[in-house]
Known about the structure:
The chain is mainly beta. 0% of the residues lie in helices and 57% in strands. β1 and β2 form a beta hairpin. The model has no long low-confidence stretch (mean pLDDT 92).
Amino acid sequence: MSQNAEIILEGSYLYYDKEVNYSQENFKLVHTPDAQTYHVHAEILSRIETGEFLKILVRYEMNNHFTPTFVRIEKSIGNKYAQEVYKIDMASQELLYTFQNSQQTQEFRKAVNSKHYLTSPAISTSALFTLTKKFDATGRTPIVVISSDNDWSYVGPPTEKVIYADFTTRELPDFKLNGNALSASHLCLNEYDATHAQAEEPVQLFLSKHYAIPYQLIHGDQKVVIKHLKKNTL
């Protein structure tokens, strides 16, 4: 980390499945004034059924307009390791994707739209697109996200997928977490737009006013709740 980097926010999350805690995420949001960039550094530790720990490291970089330019995802468990890197050339509007494990390295290039959004496993990065995306005031807003299905081995290049987001409430009047009243907004992520006949259960995100860092995520039996959030005074 650069010597002049400023830690803006830091905190941690607890992940639950049917009220059972199985994972924790620690993160920092860092601003580098000289380079005019913002970085999220996240570490996720999860205990799996074998008793081993899955460790995921995420580095998520954005320019001064909060457009993602670089994402690195490193996964390790036991002696297994895999890394994915997404790098956006803003001048040429090209994505360079690299997958690497102990047996192989694969590269892929693709032209991308200027309104691209990169995903990561870290909940701290899940709503960063709201910092730049203009939302439809009357319905669900399509969001084009880039992600891959690669896990421990390469199965194919990353693809674009459209999800639909809408702010049901920009200012929740009575949002509380652990008994504390917090200023938050309510964002729903859907697989389909509002005209689709099929009913679905959206991913619900309750967002803080601090760089769209979520306080809470709810989807079915899955829940992620912020454990602590510290805002540093610069």
